[in-house]
Amino acid sequence: MDKPKLAVSKNSAAALEKAEVRNEGLQGASERRDYPRSVRNWLILGLVLIFVQVVVGGITRLTGSGLSITKWEIVTGSLPPLNETDWLSEFDLYKATPQYEKMNEGMSLGDFKFIYFWEYFHRLWARMMGFAFIIPLAYFMFKGYIDRALGKRLGLVFFAAALTASFGWIMVASGLIERPLVNAYKLSMHLGIAFITFGILLWTTFWTANVKLPALPSPKVRKLVYWTAGVLVVQILLGGMMSGMKAALFYPTWPDLNGETIPAVLFNGANWTFENFVDYDKHPFMAALVQLLHRTTGYLVAGLIAVLAVVGFRENLLGRRWSTALWITLALMIVQVLLGIGTLVLSKGGIIPVSWGVLHQAGALLLLTAVLYDVWLVQSCRSTDLQD
């Protein structure tokens, strides 16, 4: 009889030791270095710079300025044309593009200078962001403020930023050959990677803040937060395609699509061809499909956020911080829906309103920020009874 008891005792001790090791490992994994305020402020500045870049990118796109600079010169391209001869030379390069030949033939030099400014400023801001990241990073590394954990996260940010810039040129190049506009799929990828860059930096900023929250939310809340984030990412990519295809101009009505719930062009099986997906600007099929998907996904995002707010407010597991986050997310969702509808119904005469379109794009980034903060709060919860 004694031997079985001894065996149980040994097994219990081993299990207890494993549990202690696991708990210690989890505790060590959850601990973060207390980074200086200057580092956190630097990360926040980076978020602001990327946000401004996204806004400027929206203006560049909606004013048709993206193809005004036909070369990608990282160093020499930092200076604009400085005299009339230089301006005429740049203008001649633009005159050789399909956009000028098919859309802007007869444009004056003054009009060219306007669109050149926005593309130039978009690129100049990107260069400035590089210096704003690299110079402080070198200083913080010299001071020993950047440890390996933070360094890995910043490495991802730099990689994503470089990828965004590379896709930016790939996107521009796609509009210099045959099409008078950039390829919508490549524009969507460029925008998506820019949002990913922002998201990685935002997550890194949350991580350095070392926020502690009181309790674990219910599985229902966690699932709603994750689903909301996932569907929102899809919606942002569809928004990039909407913009690139100028799909708003085909169905500028709401809540119907030119009097239809689902455009009739989508019911014709002959339209579901590979050519219509690739040459989307030669047939209304893709504009109808993308706008229908964008609207439907938008309704889904709004519904998920509304349900998350109802469930989250009822449980209120994370205290005031959680309640405030839900209110912000809900408010931004409502504003974003209204901006989307306004942009759509005001898209008349072949023109998408610049101010509404830019605000809608900026609203998407703000909504993504709020939803990612919700995800962070859910993932950073602790089972201890900490006070908010």
Q: Would you spell out the secondary-structure blueprint of this structure?
A:
Blueprint: H1 2-30, H2 37-62, H3 84-95, H4 98-102, H5 109-143, H6 148-173, H7 184-209, H8 219-245, H9 274-278, H10 285-315, H11 319-345, H12 354-379
Helix pairs in contact: 2-5, 2-7, 2-12, 6-7, 7-8, 7-12, 8-10, 8-12, 10-11, 11-12
Second-tier CATH architecture of the largest domain = Up-down Bundle
Global structural class: mainly alpha
Fraction in beta strands: under 5%
Distance between the termini: 52 Å
User: Helix amount, in percent?
Assistant: over 70%
> What is the count of β-strands?
0
Give the C-level CATH assignment of the largest domain.
Answer: Mainly Alpha
Could you spell the SSE succession in H and E letters?
HHHHHHHHHHHH
Task: Write the CATH fold name of the largest domain.
Answer: Fumarate Reductase Cytochrome B subunit
Structure description:
This protein has 388 residues and is an all-alpha fold. It has two domains: 176 residues, no CATH class; 178 residues, Up-down Bundle (Fumarate Reductase Cytochrome B subunit), CATH 1.20.950. Helix content is 71%, strand content 0%. The chain is built from twelve helices and no strands. The radius of gyration is 25 Å and the shape is flat. The N and C termini lie far apart (52 Å).
